[in-house]
């Protein structure tokens, strides 16, 4: 239990002070609670002993002060704990999001989308909604019982000892409950993650589900995940139920024992009537908050396992801790004896390549040969296993990630647009750009006209009111994004899918604008792009098998000549097809 409490305290980060405030006010709450016992003592004394009447007035004032004090302390303590919950989790979410940017892509490979999504959403929400209140309830429960026990010792040490016995038995039951909770909590959490993962997969794959008419069987995985989550949650209840009952029984038994012994001591004349009555009333009060603490303490392990899960993301090594802000002296890129594997799957071996500044290098090769991987290594999505990659003569691992990526724009085939306005999507790489700069970039990327035709122009939120874009339009938006970022290096994964002729001309124009006077690495699929490149690199079987200009490569047999022949045949087919139309 102490470990879980410590973890919550550590998790509260810069909000520790507010958490401590909440604990302090919870302690004050317990002290004000004692005013009731003090007042009761005075009243009983007055009634039984018939001493001076002014004690009654004092007792009522004490009672009033106690009630007001409790209300104020309870308000401050509750408000502080709610604040801590929201603020510490908001900080954590931002922190985790920031950290993810610096993680190697391998992390996202080995951790499913559902796993990560549920960690940042439901897992942190568990902590947000429960951690401060459970922490305060548990601490308050113990403070409250300790204060009353001390007061009991003050009145009669025998009753004080009985109260201690009750607490000890409670702790024994609670530790058994904690052990059980440690066993079931991670399983319940894993089920929760699976459920989020299955739901995400189901929604993302909805197109396939519909097109293959798999409505009946495809959501089997999701149904299973729902069933598993239900079973785990039910198990939680059924496992904790009996422990909770035993805990409650022990406390109630201790209360009865205190009352019974107080009456017995009175009957044996070893306790006064006032003390006896006072102890009987106190026996109802002493364990009330501890009962609440016991009821919530099972959640401590759930919270602990949620915190462990979030901290596991936080503990993942990031790529950039020792990087420096470097401005490269030029944008020449050199790959020196580069080797790389995804796990055990070897992709590149001893790759040596120089991409001179302000030239275009086309990368071609069979599907799966490692073209995208090579580009990802240059942008440091992954780190090389052997050799090194240099930009402007400096190993890219010496750059801060931000500093390296401020030199590179990547335009992917599958464009991802955020559910935000078109303007913000274009501004993504340069958040401080003005509207005029955005419009200029959009015009250069040939997207201004279709953006203006959307319901709210640049303010149109993608995905809202049917504001969806075609593949070609999305690609041009991503080119506008890169034009606005205006980096000296452009990595471009050329579209393989055929774009309609009107779109194609505009796309080509946008690409030309983007790549003007830049160092360009292009994963090329179209003959025209390849032909115009100053350097063509052919990748196959884990390495560079051919390199040179179009002319040089056409003069030797090999993959490149085959690639060109296939493309030309395709064009001829298309042309002859056109003729027959
Ligand atoms: N994130 C990843 N994790 C594990 N393996 C991967 C990952 N990305 C790619 N691979 C594997 O690495 C190999 C090279 O992939 P890569 O995408 O670099 O090839 P490519 O030449 O760009 O292919 P294509 O032309 O089809 O896009 C493939 O076998 C692929 O399955």
Poorly predicted tracts of residues: 574-581
* First-last Cα distance: 79 Å
CATH architecture descriptor text of the largest domain:
Up-down Bundle
So what's the CATH class of the largest domain? Mainly Alpha
Percent range for helical residues? 55-70%
Number of strands: 10
CATH superfamily of the largest domain: ABC transporter type 1, transmembrane domain
What is the count of DSSP helices, taking H or I runs of 4+ residues? 21
Oligomeric state of the chains in view: single chain
Arithmetic mean pLDDT: 83
Can you walk through the features of this model?
Residues 574-581 have low confidence and may be disordered. This protein has 581 residues and is of the alpha/beta class. The protein starts with a helix and ends with a helix. The strands form 2 sheets. Strands 6-7-8-3-9-10 form a 6-stranded mixed β-sheet, with helices on both faces. It has a 4-stranded antiparallel β-sheet with strand order 2-1-4-5, with helices on one face. α6 packs across α11 and α9 (220-267) packs antiparallel against α11. It has 3 domains: 2-314, Up-down Bundle (ABC transporter transmembrane region fold); 324-407 and 489-502 and 517-581, Rossmann fold (3-Layer(aba) Sandwich), CATH 3.40.50.300; 417-486, P-loop containing nucleotide triphosphate hydrolases (Rossmann fold, 3-Layer(aba) Sandwich). Helices cover 66% and strands 10% of the residues. The structure holds adenosine-5'-triphosphate. Residues 109, 342, 345, 347, 365, 367-373 line the site of adenosine-5'-triphosphate (ATP).
């Amino acid at each position: 239990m102490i470990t879980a409490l410590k973890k919550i305290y550590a998790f509260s980060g810069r909000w520790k002070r507010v958490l401590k405030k909440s604990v302090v006010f919870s302690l004050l709450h317990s002290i004000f609670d004692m005013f009731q016992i003090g007042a009761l003592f005075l009243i009983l004394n007055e009634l039984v002993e018939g001493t001076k009447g002014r004690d009654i007035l004092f007792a009522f004032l004490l009672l009033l002060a106690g009630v007001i004090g409790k209300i104020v302390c309870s308000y401050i303590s509750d408000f502080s704990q709610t604040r801590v919950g929201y603020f510490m989790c908001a900080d954590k979410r931002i922190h985790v999001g920031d950290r993810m940017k610096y993680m190697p892509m391998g992390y996202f490979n080995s951790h499913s989308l559902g796993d990560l999504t549920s960690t940042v959403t439901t897992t942190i929400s568990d902590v947000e909604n429960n951690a401060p209140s459970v922490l305060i309830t548990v601490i308050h429960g113990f403070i409250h019982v300790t204060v009353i026990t001390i007061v009991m010792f003050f009145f009669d040490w025998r009753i004080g000892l009985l109260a201690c016995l009750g607490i000890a038995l409670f702790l024994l039951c609670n530790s058994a409950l904690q052990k059980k909770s440690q066993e079931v909590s991670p399983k319940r959490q894993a089920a929760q993650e699976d459920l989020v993962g299955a739901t995400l997969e189901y929604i993302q794959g909805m197109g396939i589900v519909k097109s293959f008419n798999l409505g009946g069987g495809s959501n089997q995985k999701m149904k299973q995940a729902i069933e598993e989550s239900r079973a785990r949650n039910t198990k939680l209840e059924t496992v904790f139920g009996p422990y909770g009952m035993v805990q409650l029984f022990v406390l109630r038994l201790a209360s009865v024992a205190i009352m019974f012994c107080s009456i017995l001591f009175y009957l044996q004349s070893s306790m006064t009537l006032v003390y006896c009555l006072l102890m009987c009333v106190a026996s109802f009060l002493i364990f009330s908050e501890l009962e609440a603490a016991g009821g919530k303490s099972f959640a401590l392990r759930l919270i602990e396992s949620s915190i462990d899960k979030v901290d596991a993301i936080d503990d993942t090594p990031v790529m950039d801790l020792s990087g420096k802000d470097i401005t490269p002296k030029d944008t020449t890129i050199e790959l020196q004896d580069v080797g790389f594997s995804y796990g055990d799957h070897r992709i590149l071996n001893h790759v040596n390549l120089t991409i001179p500044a302000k030239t275009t290098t086309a990368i071609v090769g069979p599907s799966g040969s490692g073209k995208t991987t090579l580009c990802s290594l240059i942008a440091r999505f992954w780190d090389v296993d052997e050799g090194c990659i240099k930009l402007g003569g400096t190993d890219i691992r010496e750059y801060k990630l931000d500093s390296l990526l401020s030199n590179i724009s990547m335009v992917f085939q599958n464009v991802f647009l955020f559910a935000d306005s078109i303007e913000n999507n274009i501004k993504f790489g340069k958040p401080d750009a003005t509207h005029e700069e955005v419009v200029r970039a959009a015009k250069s990327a040939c997207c201004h006209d279709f953006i203006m035709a959307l319901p709210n122009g640049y303010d149109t939120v993608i995905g809202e009111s049917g504001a969806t874009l075609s593949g070609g339009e999305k690609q041009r938006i991503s080119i506008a994004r890169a034009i606005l970022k205006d980096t000296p290096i452009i990595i471009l994964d050329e579209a393989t899918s055929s774009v309609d002729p009107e779109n194609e001309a505009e796309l080509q124009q946008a690409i030309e604008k983007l790549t003007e006077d830049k160092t360009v690495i292009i994963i090329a699929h179209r003959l025209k792009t390849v032909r115009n490149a100053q350097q063509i690199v052919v990748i196959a079987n884990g390495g560079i098998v051919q390199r040179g200009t179009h002319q040089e490569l056409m003069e030797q047999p090999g993959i490149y000549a085959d690639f060109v022949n296939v493309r030309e045949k395709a064009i001829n087919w298309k042309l002859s097809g056109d003729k027959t139309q």
